[in-house]
Amino acid sequence: MTARTAGDQAIGATKERAPWPIVVMLICVIMVPIEFSFRMAGMFLTTSKLCMIVMTLVILPKLPSLKMKPYDWLIVAHAFWTAAALILLYGTASGIQSSGFYLLEFLVVYLVARVYLRTPGQLKATINVLFVMVVISAAFAIPEGLTGKPIAHEIARAMTGNYYPLNHETRMGIFRAKSFFEHEILYGVFCASTLTMVWFASTPEQRTWRAPLIGVATFFSASSAPLMIFTLQIWLLMIERFTRTVKNRLLVVSSSIGVVLLMLDTFTGRGVLGIITMISLNPATAWNRRAIWQFGIDDVMRHPFFGFDPITYSRPNWLGASVDNYWLLIMMRSGIPALVFLFLALLLIWLAACRLGNKNELVVRLRNGWGMAIMALLLTGATVAFFGKLQPLFSFFIGFGAALANCYRPEEETPTEKAAEPVRRGPVFSRFGPEAIGAMRQRPEQPVVSARAEASNARGESLPLRRQPAAEQGREPGPERNKPTLSRSG
C-alpha cells in the first residue's frame, strides 16, 4: 500500500462533524446578505458582527483552558495594536466603535476557530462545510452572471425592505456575480481560496468534480484577484505533484521561486508587486495598484508606528482614495508593527505545523492544503483589500492553521501503534480471578469427599479407604487430617 492509497483511505474513513459554533459562525459570515443588517445606536450592525458578539460570550469561559502559543499572543498583539491605533486616529467615540468591530471580526473569529477545532477530523469536516457553501453560492452566482439579476440580494431585499447599492458590471461577456457578498471580488476570493484545502481533503474521485466546480464558481466573479488565487493554487498543486521525490523540496522550491522573482525584478524593472499586478484582466486596474503602492508607502514611512487615516494619503488627483492592497492598508491605519505581528504569527503557525511530521497522512494533507491557500492569499493581498466579509474569513483561515498546529502531536501516535499490536494474554478464568487461585494454592490440602460418599456415610455404610501416597505415609495427621480421605464408591 502506497502513501497515497493510505492517505485516500484516511480521507474516506474520517467521519467527524464540524463543531456547531464553527458552522453557525461561517453561515453568519458568508451566507447572510448585507440587506439583513440594521443600524442601532449609531452603529451599523451586520449579522456577522451580531454573531461575533454572541460568540464572545460563548468562548469566554473556555479561554482559561486554552494553552496560548507564541503565535496566539502575536495575533492578540496585532489586534490590540490595531485597536489602539484606531482610537488614536479617530478619537474616543469613533475609535472605540471601529476598534471594537475589528476585535470582533478578527480576534474573536480567530479564537473561535482556535477553541473549537481540536482534531484533524473536525478540520476536514469544516473544509467540507466550506465546499458546500461554495456550491450554494455558485447556485446563486451562475444565474446572476447570465441574467444580471442578483437573486440572493433581491430575496433579502424583499424580506427586509433594506436596499444596498450594487454595481452591475460586465466582463468577459458575463455579468460579474456577487452571490451573497457585497462585491464580486469578495465572492470570487472566497470561492478560489478553498481550492487546495478542498483538493487535499477529498478523494481522487471527489477531486474530479469538486475542483472544476470551484473553478466555475470563481469564473463567474469575473475578477482578476480571484482568478489569480485560483491559478496560483493550480501552480502550487503542480509543483507539489512533481517534487514529491525531491529531498528538502521546500527549500529547493523556495530557492527556485526566489531566483525567478529576482531575475524578473532585474530584467523587467517592475518589482515583485509589479509582476503580481501584471496578472490582471484590466490593465488600468493594474496601473492604479502600482501607483497606490508607490504613493501610499511614502506616507507609511512618515507615520511608521500608528499609521494615519487611509483616506488622507498623499496621491495625485486622478488616483482614487481606494486602497487595493491589504498589507498597505494595515500599515496605513495601524502602523508597521501591526503588519509585523501578523506576518510573524503566520510564520510561527507554519513552522509549528511543519513540526508535526509526516506520520499522519490526514494531517499532512491538511497542512499542504492550508499552506497553499495562505500562500495564495498572501500574494493576492498585495492586489486587493480584504474588506467586508473577507476580513473575518481571512482571520478564520489563520485560526484554522493555528488549530491544525495544535490538534495533533507526533508522539500521540505511539500509544495508538502499540495498542494495535497483538497483546499476549494470560489464562481466562471463568469463576475465580488469579488472586483467588493463588490463595487456594497456599491452603493446606483438604480431604476430598464426593457427594455420593457423604450420602453413604450418612447411612452408616463403610467405605474403603484410599491408599495414601508414599510421601504422606510417615506424616502425623494434623488438625485438618483427623478424618480419613474417602474415595468415590458405589
Biggest sheet: strands, sense, closure?
2 strands, antiparallel
Proportion in β-strands = under 5%
Instruction: Write down the secondary-structure element order.
Output: HHEEHHHHEEHHHHHHHHHHHHHH
Largest sheet strand order: 1-2
Structural class by SSE content: mainly alpha
* Uncertain stretches of 5 or more adjacent residues: 414-425, 453-466, 470-474, 478-484, 486-490
Radius of gyration: 35 Å
Question: What number is the mean pLDDT?
Answer: 82
Query: How many individual helices?
Result: 20
Organism: Haematobacter genomosp. 1
Keywords: Membrane, Transmembrane, Transmembrane helix
Region (Disordered): 437-490
Transmembrane segments: 18-36, 73-93, 100-117, 123-142, 185-202, 214-238, 250-279, 336-357, 369-387
What secondary-structure arrangement, pairings included, does this model have?
Elements: H1 3-13, H2 20-31, E1 38-40, E2 43-45, H3 47-59, H4 70-116, H5 120-147, H6 151-160, E3 170-171, E4 174-175, H7 184-193, H8 195-200, H9 204-219, H10 224-242, H11 249-268, H12 271-278, H13 283-302, H14 326-334, H15 336-354, H16 361-380, H17 390-406, H18 413-420, H19 434-442, H20 451-458
Antiparallel strand pairs: 1-2, 3-4
Helix pairs in contact: 2-3, 2-5, 3-4, 4-15, 4-17, 5-9, 7-9, 7-10, 10-16, 12-13, 14-15, 15-17, 16-17
Keywords: Membrane, Transmembrane, Transmembrane helix
Region (Disordered): 437-490
Organism: Haematobacter genomosp. 1
